[in-house]
Specification:
With 193 residues, the chain is mainly β. It has helices at 8-13, 48-51, 91-97, and strands at 23-33, 38-43, 57-62, 65-69, 71-77, 80-85, 101-105, 126-129, 134-143, 148-154, 157-162, 168-172, 177-180.
Length: 193
């Protein structure tokens, strides 16, 4: 079977960045909108006008396998942010990047006030109960209409933990640790021994 010739995007996707600086996720591509390559994003911290000022950006499934990308256009529909990236010109190309993250170099990351953190800072944090028992690690942060949810990877699979004061007791970015008081049965059978 002969494979079709590689597109420019596919050629770039084979490159691994040799990061002199750390890449930080600023958004995730959530879904395709329309037929001209536009995508809806979940922004971790930036407003729509702030995306218009980003020049050097990367996209990829993780921060080790990224390709350079450039924003062609930013639009909004209510509170939702939509981007049109250069070289993503149709629905098929946009579908291929759904689920990818958008990254900037650490020095171009938006600065937050002391004590605040970005959603991507939570990825990989250990989740423990009040007794210190390790329950899993944060795999993703998902925004729902009512509140965020931590997708926690355990030995038995993924558990969705609502980010509400009654459940999430503390977040310590320096220690890479989140302490939770899960409802009875939420982690049943998934706790690490």
């Amino acid at each position: 079977m002969q494979l079709p010739p590689k597109t420019e995007n596919e050629r770039y996707s084979k490159l691994k960045t040799k990061n002199q600086t750390t890449l930080r996720a600023v958004a995730q591509v959530k879904k395709v909108f329309g037929i001209r390559g536009e995508v809806k994003i979940f922004s971790y911290s930036r407003s729509a006008p702030e995306y218009e000022k980003i020049f050097a950006m990367f996209r990829g499934r993780d921060d080790r396998h990224v390709v350079p990308c450039e924003i062609e256009r930013v639009t909004t529909r209510g509170e939702e942010i939509y981007l049109k990236l250069k070289m993503i010109d149709d629905r098929t190309a946009a579908e291929q990047i759904a689920g990818e993250y958008l990254f900037v170099e650490e020095q171009h990351r938006k600065q937050l006030p002391s004590g605040k953190f970005f959603d991507d800072d939570l990825l990989g944090c250990v989740v423990r109960n009040e007794d210190g028992k390790e329950l899993g690690t944060v795999h993703d942060v998902v925004q729902y209409p009512a509140h965020k949810v931590y997708e926690v990877k355990t030995k038995s699979g993924f558990i969705m933990v609502p980010v509400v004061d009654e459940i999430v007791l503390s977040v310590n970015i320096e220690k890479r640790e989140i302490v939770v008081r899960p409802p009875e049965g939420l982690f049943e059978g998934t706790m690490l021994e």
